[in-house]
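Hi R.,

Here's the chain you asked about this morning:
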Amino acid sequence: MGCDDKELSVLITDDSQIAELNHQYRGKAEPTNVLSFPMSVEAEFSGDPKMLGDIVISADTAKRESDALGESLEHRIDRLLIHGLLHLLGHDHIHSDEEAEKMEEEERRLLALIMEA
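And the predicted structure, written out as tokens:
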């Protein structure tokens, strides 16, 4: 993925905390499954160019989704982690159907790599 020397912070939390973050940073007062916070351009000049960003996953929401999808919680969290990572790397699924398709394809590719390991 071209980011071998990058660092990533991951927080697995509950619906209450992720709802607070979602409200604070996105103006949506509800829990979500995953949030990504890329390091700003300014961070590249502040002495920490290796930090890619932060990913926050709600274990509560992930559990509900894994149950609904009939997959393990571990598999669902893997998928959410990949999704968040792709956002940190600049992928977007909201503004373009073409970009959404590319992002889904990359999610499937990376998930397959994890499943092989």
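The chain has one domain: 7-116.

Let me know if you need anything else.
M.
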